[in-house]
Design brief:
eight-stranded parallel beta sheet, alpha/beta, globular, TIM Barrel, two-stranded antiparallel ribbon, 12 strands
Length: 375
């Protein structure tokens, strides 16, 4: 693995010293799940010695340059076998590593030991923009590395709600080489269904429009639009996954629970993202998670967050922020979750997407180990 000559972190060392893990809490809902969660306790560990960190990332001369946040995440070797005993479809989003799809697959399979991968963009194109030849090339690469696809991580409904005041969070960034306006959503949905068939997955990820200052006047119509899309997906035996996203109208566990209650379609499920909820200062676990109907969680993204002195958030490697990942993972297993657990790094503190994802994957594997989960 080739790492950059310099590491950088968007958070200062002084700031990281002031950052702690939110206190653990215990669920009051659920009988069997509660018995499991009582044993969670404690904060996610404080990392490893410099020698262990250096051995984990293979960087013997630069270990002292890693910020405390990285050491807390636990940069252990991320080359374990993704064992058949893993209760989840353990994965990584391909473009969090690199836009070079074959390299991303090689790292996921050979270095991370994964059997699953989530598709979002490759070769500097959103997955929904791939040509037929590129789709076939991607399929061959997946077969070469024996990787299955958890879902199509599409930008469906990540746009402005028509007729509403323009969202202050309306943006063209973070759509991963895609830009579809409201009028193009039906066409985009059909394309996602085609890709789900081509990549042999039963799941498509969506959002619920850029976040409005006041969504109440439009919420019923937004829900109806999501339900209609879920009905169309059901015709193709596909599950529509709504991601809670801080820039969209469903951001927290509280908001996600309300939407799931309003849209009872069995194939309409949640892509639970504790990091996104934490970005809005919501406590995703146990508070937000306890409100969710567990049988409606169909996918989970793993990332982490820290809070800066100015009140804003910054991404962090998994295990280096405020999300109680050990507790969350234990609870998911106890509640019978068996779908995709996918690393969505976002953090870039190691200098490159690949280097940062390696460190964050090590942090996620460390959290799984602390939770007693063999992946």
């Amino acid at each position: 693995m080739v790492l950059p000559r310099k590491f950088y972190c968007p958070i200062s060392l002084a700031e990281t010293k002031r950052i702690g893990v939110l206190p653990d809490g215990l669920s009051t809902a659920g009988k069997q799940a509660q018995k499991e969660r009582v044993r969670i306790g404690g904060k996610d560990g404080m990392g490893h010695t410099r020698r262990e960190v250096l051995a984990g990332i293979g960087l013997a001369g630069l270990g002292a340059m890693l910020p405390p946040m990285v050491r807390k995440a636990g940069a252990l070797p991320a080359q374990d076998t993704n064992r058949d005993s893993c209760p989840f479809r353990f994965a990584v989003i391909n473009d969090e590593i690199t836009q070079d799809f074959e390299r991303a697959c090689a790292i996921a399979a050979n270095d991370f030991g994964l059997h699953w991968i989530e598709l979002r963009s490759m070769w500097n194109k959103n997955v929904t923009e791939l040509s037929p030849a590129q789709v076939e090339d991607a399929r061959k690469i997946l077969a070469k590395y024996k990787l299955r696809v958890t879902d199509i991580a599409s930008p469906l409904f990540k746009t402005d709600w028509p007729g509403a005041p323009r969202s202050p969070l309306s943006e063209r960034r973070d759509q991963f080489n895609a830009d579809y306006d409201a009028a193009a959503q039906d066409k985009l949905l059909e394309r996602c269904l085609e890709l789900a068939k081509a990549f042999e997955t039963d799941r498509v990820r969506c959002f619920d429009y850029w976040r409005l200052d006041d969504q109440k006047p439009f919420r019923a119509a937004i829900n109806a639009r999501l339900a209609k899309a879920a009905d169309r997906c059901a015709q193709e035996h596909v599950i529509l996954l709504l991601e809670n996203e801080m820039s969209c109208n469903t951001a927290t566990g509280e908001e996600a629970a309300a939407v799931l209650h309003a849209i009872p379609n069995r194939n309409f499920m949640l892509n639970w993202d504790p990091g996104n909820a934490a970005a809005l200062k919501s406590k995703p676990f146990p508070n937000g998670f306890d409100l969710l109907p567990k049988e409606r969680i169909g996918h989970c993204h793993a990332k982490d967050v820290v809070y800066k002195p100015d009140g804003k958030y910054e991404w962090a490697p998994v295990g280096g922020g405020v999300v109680d990942w050990v507790g969350q993972l234990k609870a998911l297993k106890a509640d019978g979750f068996r779908y995709g657990l996918s690393l969505e790094t976002h953090w870039r503190g190691a200098g490159t997407p690949e280097a940062s994802t390696r460190i964050s994957m090590a942090g996620l594997k460390k959290a799984l180990g602390k939770a007693g989960i063999d992946c």
